[in-house]
Design goal:
9 helices, binds adenosine-5'-diphosphate, OB fold (Dihydrolipoamide Acetyltransferase, E2P), six-stranded mixed sheet, Rossmann fold, 28% helix, 17 strands, 2 domains, alpha/beta, 327 residues
């Protein structure tokens, strides 16, 4: 569908994209995640043809054209303030010289799908951020784009709106079958709705894979850390933990790393007066509780759902899953 081949870009002598290779499949929902300044927007601007790469090429199944556009929905939504919601959504068809009645019919249908038919005659300034975003996406979809690019679609939304919006975007993408690339630093939402994810760090596309594999089998420590909290446990401390049989095999596989990595939610513990760990901290984080547990001179982080121990209490720990680096 779309191939990014060995694309590099420099700004004032500083490389912001380094030899990017990426293949986007027809009809998939692909997300690029990475820290701020990693080069995500630059890559999207190059894919959208709004910017030129210094080297490498973008190869698309069909050439970009008015009939096969690549449309980017910007995070500020960029709606036309002097046009009504209906006129905003119908705008692209007006540019294509589609007769008024036909374009308004198509725009109305989309507004209905987006659940904002009652806002058709209102102006953007009267809408909530979530409604503005729906208008912005509807305005892009009406042109049946070959590729839809969503630039930080959750940036202007309240925390509690983000997940609902993510689910709605996914449902819409499936309904219309549009190949979609999303750029975001909201990893949770990206993991929830993407078919595949690309991790971009300091201009390099470090890993491209399904959300599950990227999370559990990151290619290196840096990627593991970017995606969530990790414990790095020196191998000589493994004897203080219970390990399922499968993990004992895994831990022996990679002797060159002197420590193993596991995520905070991949551990559990129970009170045990003879256990090797001591609870040193309890932090309630809404849906989860973060425990810190000291074992000799190291501290382990564990996420749990219930408050089951007190500070100072002794515990035994089990590791349930280890991150396999370099998978
Ligand atoms: P992200 O979207 O991941 O936050 P960007 O692609 O916006 O990252 O930016 C990557 C780097 O390139 C940043 O250091 C940014 O300051 C720089 N940059 C982006 N656009 C320009 C530009 N037009 N001129 C100079 N530097 C730029």
């Amino acid at each position: 569908m779309l191939k990014v081949k060995n694309v590099s870009k420099e700004y004032r002598g500083r490389k912001v994209l380094k030899n990017i290779d990426l293949h986007i499949h027809q009809g998939e929902f692909f997300s690029i995640v990475g820290p701020s300044g990693a080069g995500k927007s630059t890559l999207m601007r190059i894919i959208s043809n709004l910017e030129k790469q210094d080297s490498g090429e973008i190869v698309s199944l069909k050439p970009y054209s008015k009939e096969n556009p690549v449309i980017m929905v910007f995070q500020d939504f960029s709606l036309f303030p002097h046009l009504t919601v209906l006129e905003n959504v119908a705008y692209g068809l007006k540019m294509r010289k589609i007769p008024r009645q036909m374009r308004e019919e198509r725009a109305s249908k989309l507004l209905s799908w987006f659940g904002i038919s009652d806002k058709a005659q209102e102006f953007p300034s009267m809408l909530s951020a979530g409604q503005k975003q729906r208008v912005a996406i509807a305005r892009a979809l009406i042109l049946n784009p070959m590729i839809l690019i969503l630039d930080e679609p959750f940036a202007n939304l309240d925390k509690n709106l983000k997940m609902n919006t993510a689910l709605f975007i996914k449902k819409t993408q499936r309904e219309f079958g549009i190949t979609t690339i999303m750029v975001t630093h909201d990893q949770e939402e990206a993991f929830y709705i993407s078919d595949r994810i690309g991790i971009l760090i300091e201009g390099r596309l470090i890993q491209t894979d399904t959300p599950e594999r990227v999370y559990n089998q990151p290619v290196n420590r840096e990627t593991a850390l970017f995606l969530g909290q990790i414990n790095e446990i020196p191998r000589e401390y493994l004897s203080f933990f219970s390990l399922p049989d499968s993990l004992i095999f895994d831990t022996g596989k990679d002797e060159k790393n002197s420590s193993v990595i596991c995520r905070y939610e991949a551990l559990s513990f129970f009170p045990d007066p003879n256990g090797p760990g001591v609870v040193t901290g309890i932090h309630v984080w809404g849906k989860m509780i973060l425990y810190t547990i000291g074992i000799k001179d190291i501290t382990i982080g564990v996420y749990a759902l219930q408050m089951s121990v007190q500070i100072g209490e002794k515990v035994s720990l089990t590791i349930h899953h280890l991150i396999q680096q370099g998978a």
